[in-house]
């Protein structure tokens, strides 16, 4: 195949794929998880990493926080019911704090004009979950987290996120990723007249 040949089926440079210079979600979440949840700032997540633009930085910060939120919501079985209850209570407080931080980062991102491309970059950029160890090349995007049943309402119901998802649902993206189908199917099911 010619190196400059590009079709939707052969494309290797899709705009929302993880680049080698992007850190994995796991690396950043491990660093941020060591901090008290009330002390986490945007800079704590993205400092030390190189990103091509601010929308990609925001995408990474949101993905890391959504990953941490998901981990905090997991229940680990234990015979110590009282300890389990205390941990669950603490985790719920942490989830609320993380959701507030997610909303703050999204609101600050939108404080200045953002093009559709910027917003799509913030929602559809893929990042490796792990470091690619053992051939693990699983990726996650902000929209992947939003497609989950327990996604944060503050982001999922944001009018601009809804509008961009609807736009992609109708028009697609430049190099549509088949993994978007889950979110668009959910959106379609919730949006179809009954």
In short:
The protein has helices at 25-33, 42-46, 54-73, 81-109, 116-124, 142-146, 153-156, 159-171, 181-191; strands spanning 127-128, 139-140. The protein is mainly alpha-helical. A two-stranded antiparallel ribbon has the order 1-2.
The amount of helix comes to 40-55%
* Run of helices and strands: HHHHHEEHHHH
Overall residue-averaged pLDDT value: 79
In percent terms, what proportion of residues is strand? under 5%
- Most strands sheet: 2 strands, antiparallel
Count of helical segments? Answer: 9
| Cα separation of the termini | 48 Å
Structural class: mainly alpha
How many β strands by DSSP? 2
The spatial strand order of the largest sheet comes to: 1-2
Rg over CA atoms: 18 Å
Shape: globular
**Poorly predicted regions:** 1-15
Describe what this molecule looks like in 3D.
The chain has 194 residues and is mainly α. The chain is built from nine helices and two strands, in the order αααααββαααα. It has helices spanning 25-33, 42-46, 54-73, 81-109, 116-124, 142-146, 153-156, 159-171, 181-191; strands at 127-128, 139-140. It has a two-stranded antiparallel ribbon. α1 (25-33) crosses α3. The longest helix is centred in the middle third of the chain and has 29 residues, at 81-109. The radius of gyration is 18 Å and the shape is globular. The termini are far apart. Residues 1-15 have low confidence and may be disordered.
